[in-house]
Specification:
InterPro entries: Ac/SucOrn_transaminase_bac (IPR017652), AcOrn/SuccOrn_fam (IPR004636), Aminotrans_3 (IPR005814), Class-III_PLP-dep_AT (IPR050103), PyrdxlP-dep_Trfase (IPR015424), PyrdxlP-dep_Trfase_major (IPR015421), PyrdxlP-dep_Trfase_small (IPR015422). The protein is an alpha/beta fold and 401 residues long. It is built from 15 helices and 17 strands. Helix content is 40%, strand content 18%. The protein is globular, with a radius of gyration of 21 Å.
């Protein structure tokens, strides 16, 4: 198959929503990837924070193979053992009382937003419908979630858009306090803005949002699609902030590479969704739930402590490269979600740098035109990190020359 297909076939057969790299990965193991020509790459992107435990993780593979011989799909007229185990684990390890499973982060956020509006309508009437969101946020690509996301470039072409959605500056509690009212049904926030530049929330900001939601009887939604499943060094980022939401969304790393999404919530909110009010065909299927169970089983204290160690190592190396080449103005993030903002001389060159990095054999991400983003496997070996930064330095040297 590899000999017959190449990058040109994407342009020939695929809807051009994406502009993939010129190389095609065909094999991966741990944090190493090989393309059709046999070239090796160190993966510092993790499938956009999805491959939480690396490629072809043997524990995930063994669990999936065992479930493949048992039950693939049964439909939402029935439940299954793997999904019940997954729900029980998530409830026991978080603030939540109930869980809804779907297939992606966008679907999880769609469910959370629909739930917030229905909960408010049931309790307070139709007038309580305003949703407060934040500029430069990203919550998915459905019409509702892309509108709630604070990046008009992704939503403007699809007008008319869902109404009653307000976008405010991130980390600006004063702006929220001036906007929120009895009409507000929900605030949705990423504990760390991901796609919009890897910008962590101030603790006082999240604490203030919690207090405002309590005062105005609004639902506080944490979008932890990118920050969840151990990415920041705890199971979910809220656990480091000491602020509990009413609803939380999860996906990406939760499945370790197998598509799954989840909405976690409290009993009072869960009761607003009764049979027929929301649903999904594939959500919570036994295969996805089995893989997610294996992911959670591996997210123990030792692994999460390793995330913190790797964060310090990467941040130090990025800082050293920034000083040596004058290329970075800020290093930020938490755990293994790290952003390196380009200095003024190199603004707008993030994609150029990731392309050069790929040529040197390291896969990285961008978070907007000015930020290099890293989201490698949580268990990436330090030897792979060392090699990744040797290759990254070669790419930076080429850029700055």
């Amino acid at each position: 198959m590899s000999a017959r297909l190449n990058r040109d076939d994407f342009d020939k057969y695929m809807v051009p929503c994406f502009s993939p790299a010129p190389f095609i990965p065909v094999k991966a193991s741990g944090s190493r990837v090989w393309d059709q020509q046999g070239k090796e790459y160190v993966d510092m992107a993790g499938g956009i924070a999805v491959n939480a435990l690396g490629h072809a993780n043997p524990h995930l593979g063994e669990a999936l193979k065992a479930q493949i011989d048992r039950l693939w799909h049964i439909g939402n007229g029935y439940t299954n053992e793997p999904v019940l185990e997954l729900a029980k684990t998530l409830v026991e390890r978080t603030f939540a009382d109930k869980v809804f499973f779907c297939n992606s982060g966008a679907e999880a956020n769609e469910a959370a937003l629909k739930l917030a509006r229905k909960y408010a309508s049931d309790r307070h009437g139709k007038g309580k419908s305003e949703i407060i969101a934040f500029q430069n946020a990203f919550h998915g690509r459905t019409l509702f979630t892309v509108t709630v996301g604070g990046q008009p470039k992704y939503s403007a072409d699809y007008a008319p858009l869902p109404a009653d959605i307000i976008h405010l500056p991130y980390n600006d509690l004063k702006a929220v306090s001036e906007q929120i009212s009895e009409r507000t049904c929900a605030i949705i926030v990423e504990p760390i803005i991901g796609e919009g530049g890897v910008r962590p929330a101030d603790p006082a900001f999240l604490q203030g949002l919690r207090q405002l939601c309590d005062r105005y009887q609004a639902t506080l939604i944490f979008d932890e699609v990118q920050t969840g499943a151990g990415r920041t060094g705890s199971l979910y980022a809220y656990q480091q902030y000491g602020v509990e939401p009413d609803t939380l969304t999860s996906a990406k790393g939760l499945g370790g590479g197998f598509p799954i999404g989840a909405m976690l919530t409290r009993n009072a909110w869960a009761d607003a969704f009764q049979p027929g009010t929301h649903g999904t065909t594939f959500g919570g299927n036994p295969l996805a739930a089995t893989v997610a169970n294996s992911v959670l089983a591996q997210l123990d204290n030792a692994l999460l402590q390793g995330v913190a160690e790797r964060h310090r190592w990467i941040a130090a190396r990025l800082g050293a490269l920034g000083e040596k080449y004058g290329v970075f103005s800020d290093i930020r993030g938490a755990g293994l979600l790290i952003g390196a903002e380009l200095s003024s001389t190199w603004r707008g060159k993030a994609k150029t740098l990731t392309n050069l990095a790929a040529e040197e054999g390291v896969i990285a991400l961008i978070a907007g035109p000015d930020v290099l983003r890293f989201a490698p496997a949580l268990n990436i070996p330090f030897g792979d990190l060392e090699e990744a930064f040797v290759r990254l330095e070669r790419a930076i040297a080429r850029l700055t020359r």
